[in-house]
Amino acid sequence: xxxxxxxxxxxxxxxxxxxxxxxxxxxxxxxxxxxxxxxxxxxxxxxxxxxxxxxxxxxxxxxxxxxxxxxxxxxxxxxxxxxxxxxxxxxxxxxxxxxxxxxxxxxxxxxxxxxxxxxxxxxxxxxxxxxxxxxxxxxxxxxxxxxxxxxxxxxxxxxxxxxxxxxxxxxxxxxxxxxxxxxxxxxxxxxxxxxxxxxxxxxxxxxxxxxxxxxxxxxxxxxxxxxxxxxxxxxxxxx
Length: 239
Fold this sequence. Notes:
The protein is of the alpha/beta class. The chain has a single domain, classed as Vaccinia Virus protein VP39 (Rossmann fold), CATH 3.40.50. It is 46% helix and 21% strand. It contains nine helices and seven strands; from the N terminus they run αααβαβαββαβαααββ. A seven-stranded mixed sheet has the order 3-2-1-4-5-7-6, with helices on both faces. The model has no long low-confidence stretch (mean pLDDT 86).
């Protein structure tokens, strides 16, 4: 599978959607929930805000955001794959009090108006876009002036300034992906889908490169922060 190929990425998430949340819990030892909550801390959602969750997948982050903007706010989750959206809608239906909706859309061209959102989040989506720079430009366009955005994804440790022993972190990351992630995915019949992770990471912009792309996209405050000893990264943005 070619990283960033829109049709291939869509097919991948259509295939893994039924087991996506279970595998996330198993492969991250549940830590992905903690990292998403760190993203929410930066975003500072508050009642009455209108928020976007781009590349929302099965909706776990959107559900957390909706809890924080109710009762008068709204959260819109967008994704290009229908199977994850179906799971997200099912989960939202179990919490009908949440101001939450999900729609199919391309993260590079959402069709929403300029400044539509007070804030936005993207978890494990930027790395899968055909053009991450274009994704950041669309993210900036969607935010009102002063709006916050946060992007959570895998990190390329060698690109993290100040990260001690970056080469050792990168080596551990390769070990984790090859010896833990892929074998675990094989048990679910999905080895090739998770083998894609390492290939996608090789071409993903480093933290400093993401910061540069975000500035070029028009964000006025930009910071990329390593998480989990540099295995993950949080791109914190202000429009």
